Amino acid sequence: xxGSSKLGKSMSDFLFEYQTxxxxxxxxxxxxxxxxxxxxxxxxxxxGWVFIYEKGYxxxxxxxxxxxxxxxxxxFTNLSTVGPRVLDGVDYTFPSQGSDSxxxxxxxxxxxxxxxxxxxxxxxxxQCESDSDCPAGSFSRHGQxxxxxxxxxxxxxxxxxxxxxxxxxxxxxxxPNPPLLMAAENFTIFIKNSITFTAFGVTRRNxxxxxxxxxxxxxxxxxxxxxxxxxxxxxxxxxxIHENFSALAYRGAMIGIVINWNCDLDKPExxxxxxxxxxxxYRSLNKDQVSVGFNFRYAKYYKESGIEMRDLYxxxxxxxxxxxxxxxxxxxxxPTMTTIGSGIGVFGIAxxxxxxxxxxxxxxxxxxxxxxxxxxxxxFPAGTGSLTEAS
Length: 391
Known about the structure:
Blueprint: H1 2-16, H2 29-53, E1 58-62, E2 64-72, E3 75-79, E4 83-87, H3 89-92, E5 93-94, E6 101-120, E7 146-153, E8 159-167, E9 188-197, E10 202-205, H4 213-218, E11 231-233, H5 234-240, H6 245-251, E12 253-264, E13 275-280, E14 295-304, E15 307-331, H7 333-346, H8 348-360, H9 365-372, E16 377-379, E17 388-390
């Protein structure tokens, strides 16, 4: 019965008793000011940074995005090798249906009417002294075809290896200056972007409610006057990255167009709008640097009198990367309570700091230790199983 009574009492104590820590109020101006200042700093951090700036009361979701691009504008060139030409978006945009990465041609070198034949290499591929420098059937890393074992003088009087390949060989030393397509400064890029916040079931387009068909036909993007217009003039983009367009067009460049969607879905969805910014991704316009700008080659193939021919283009252009970033937030009780709980825990810093000051820095630290801590000596008197306190 005694065992049962003790067990019942223990259960009763466990269920119905509440224990609270002992609190000691210490009046010290220095410690009191430190305590309140730390509390104020913590409160400012929690309310100002965590709740207002970081929106700690919201659950967040990242975006799923799709994008398409159209480039418009006309350019005109008149080269002695190919004659006058008008170029439209199909001619100077690669690929022709722009996606999140595309190139707009601004300058080029053309080597027309190449065919499979024997000819001497350009001296930039390497010079030779005798036939032994041109082993038949081998390729040079910088060569323009397969060598046939002969060392001959080319049209410029330099001794180079004769090759079998596309002849006449390309001479890309002389880049047209000014660029052939300076008209590209007024070309426009039309960007369509659709994003979805899957967790919240919200879908938005960069063609927001205020953009009408009539507005779209006449607007071009300007960060102050038309910040939502999705039509971008290349010259304006060059201004935004603080570069001269002719310098970009001469050897090419790489530019990022960033679309930012940072949306507060506690507000109406119409407030969720994109923001655009521009960045040069690879600064290499200094002529003293190696591999300056951006370029690539492509060819147009055709047949003439039954012989396969091609026109070889070395294209200099601006490569654009469309980068879509963003997140959305909406009120959720779980992150709200988590943030509040974390904030309450941070308030404990004030107590820790003040205890360190009281117990280790102040002149009367020993007195405070006596008030804060109660020393208890526990002993078991002979013949008993209970605790006694000796003070």
